[in-house]
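---------- Forwarded message ----------

FYI, see the Cdc15p record below. Original note from H. follows.
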Amino acid sequence: MEEIKLNNDVIEQIKGFNHQKLTKEQESLIDKLILNEKLKECYKKCDLCKECKQPNTDIDWCYSCNSKNFQKNFINWTSGNNDIDKFIQKNQLLAKNRDEVIQWIEYDKFENIENLSKGGFGTIYKAIWKNQNKDYPVALKCFYNSQDMTAELLREVESHVLLNRSTYIVHCYGLTKNSKSDDFMMVLEYAENGSLRQYLNNNFNSLKWNQKLQNLLSIACGLKAIHNIGLIHNNLHCSNILSHLHKLTIADLGLCQPANVKSQNDNIKIHRVLPYVAPEVLRGEEYTKASDIYSFGIIAHEICTGMTPYNDMANDEFLDIKICQGLRPKSNYKIPQLIFDIINQCWDAEPLKRPNAVELEHLLNELYLKIQQQNSDLNEQIKEANEINLNQYRLNVNDIETEYSGTL
C-alpha cells in the first residue's frame, strides 16, 4: 500500500506556520489542504520533518528519515556480537520515537568511570558519557560472563525499550562493551541520590507526609506502566528503586516477564529479596501482578516509617514461614490511618483483595488531593501521627540519656 504524503504545493503553503500557534485562518487552510486525518494530526502535533518536509510521526521524529539514516550508519559500528547487532539494528529501524531508540555506544565515549556497587549479576559503575559535545552522567550496568547470557541481556533491554517513555522507569540509552573484560554493559540513566534505601537513610528525618505520598505515587505510576504493557517486575524491593530528580524511578528490569507466562527461570527465586516476596510466591505459586502490589505494600511501609522490613528478624530462619502465616512489618512509628489502610490492602494475604496498579494510583491520588486541603481528615490524622512520633522520639532520647548517665 502506497504511503500517503503531502504534495509540494501543500508543503509550500504551510511550511512557514508555527504548528503550535496556528491562527484561525491557518487552521481553516490546513483543514482544506490536508484531508487525511492522520497526516493532519501528525502535523498539528509534531510539525514538518526538516529533512523530507513531510509531517513528523512524533515529536522531533520522522520515522521514514530516521530509519534510512540509521540503516546508512550500520556499516560504521558493530558490537562484535551478531545477536546484539541484529537487535539494535531492528530496534533502530522500527523505533517510532526517540525514546525507543537503543544505541551502540563505543566504550571510549565514557570517562571518569568509577565503581558504585557489586551484585550477583555484575557491577554498576558511574561514568560521564561524551555525547555530541555534551557530558551526561550515566550508570553502566556490567554483566559477568555476558557473552554467554546475550538472551537475558537483550530481554532486559527490550523491557526498557517498551518502558522508556515512562518518567517513572529508569531510562536505557543503549549498550556498550568493556574494552578490557569484553563484558557487555547497559548504559542507563544515572540516579544521583542512589537507591531508595540510601535516600531514606539520608533524608527520612526531613521528609514530610506530602513528600512520602509523592514517593508512593511515583512507584505506583511506574508499576502501572509495567503492568499496562502486560509485564510484571518480579523483583521489586528497596534497592531496585532509585531516587532521581526529586522523584523515584523503578530500576532493574532483569527479571521482568509477561504476566501470562509461567516462569521457567530457577534463578529468579535466588535473586528475590525475602522480606518483599508475597506469601503465595513463598508457597510456590506463580508470581503475578498482585505479587508486585504486595512488594509495593512492604516498600510503602518502609517509606512511611524509614525502617527496613523485619529489621529485628534478620537472622530468623523461619521468616518465610511466618510471612505465610500472616506476619507483616511492624513499627512504633505512627502512620496516618488512611495511608496505612492502603498499605494493609496491598499486603493482604489474599492476592485478589489487593488493588491493581490503576486502582492503587487512584487511591494515592485521592490522598494526595486530601493533603492539599487544610482541614481534611487525612491532615487531622497526620497531625495526630506527628505528635505521637515526636513524643516517641523524646522518650527514646530520654531512654538513651538515662542509659548513658548510668554508665558514668
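H. also flagged this: The radius of gyration is 25 Å.
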